[in-house]
Design brief:
There is one protein chain. With about 210 residues, this protein is an alpha+beta fold. It contains six helices and nine strands, in the order ααααββαβββββββα. The protein has a six-stranded mixed β-sheet. The chain is globular. The N and C termini lie far apart (about 90 Å). About 10% of the residues have low confidence.
Length: about 210
């Protein structure tokens, strides 16, 4: 057999073998491409416990000026909104905590509730109470009194298996405003004045 005939035979063999391959199951491929991915199994109770643990650690860090702890549970891109409307970054919060500018006889979290959204996100709401709280602000002679009650919302996300705060906002509760609303609309259902400040408030003058 000459070389040309051998080459032709090889080519024919390749064509025949390819023709014998089973046809692609287009229906199966399409189903696989459009199938809804299975939801990741997770334990909401475990996530709730972890979020609560971190939240308490934040309160403790604020009271003891433990900036190192805060570096671990605050995401690098965290957005913090203090009760006075000031927006802050992780670096701002760390500086505030380690400066020791805030002092308080008590800084407690009340009525906290964790809502688990999925395996990687959750948020916590509640109230905080600061008793005899003061914060020293540069260029001001007297410390700012931050005693009072606050309502907070902190958002958590899990990245690389680690839960961190990605957003936080707190507002100060004004008992006078609640009383005025109740007086203006006696029939309206007005909740009793709450009490708690956001962990971010721990180091913030108004939080």
């Amino acid at each position: 057999m000459n070389r040309s005939a051998l080459a032709l035979l090889v080519c024919l063999a390749v064509v025949v073998l390819n023709g014998c391959q089973p046809a692609a199951d287009t229906n199966r491929n399409l189903a696989a491409a459009t199938a809804t991915p299975a939801k990741e199994a997770f334990d909401p109770a475990a996530i709730e416990a972890e979020v609560m643990r971190i939240e308490r650690e934040w309160y403790s860090a604020a009271k003891t000026h433990n900036a190192e702890a805060a570096k671990g549970f605050l995401a690098d891109n965290v957005i913090l909104v203090y009760p006075d409307g000031t927006a802050a970054t992780k670096a701002d919060e760390i500086r505030s905590i380690e400066s020791g500018a805030m002092t308080a006889d008590a800084y407690d979290m009340l009525e906290s509730k964790v809502t688990v959204m999925n395996a990687d996100s959750a948020f916590i709401t509640g109230r905080s109470v600061i008793k005899n709280g003061k914060i020293v602000v540069p260029n001001q002679k007297k410390p700012i009194d931050i005693t009072g009650e606050y309502r907070f919302l902190d958002v958590y996300a899990r990245s690389d298996g680690k839960w961190q705060v990605v957003a936080s906002q707190a507002v100060k509760i004004e008992p006078g405003a609640v009383a005025a609303a109740a007086a203006a609309s006696p029939a309206a259902s007005v909740p009793p004045p709450p009490a708690k400040a956001s962990p971010t408030a721990k180091a913030s003058p108004t939080k």
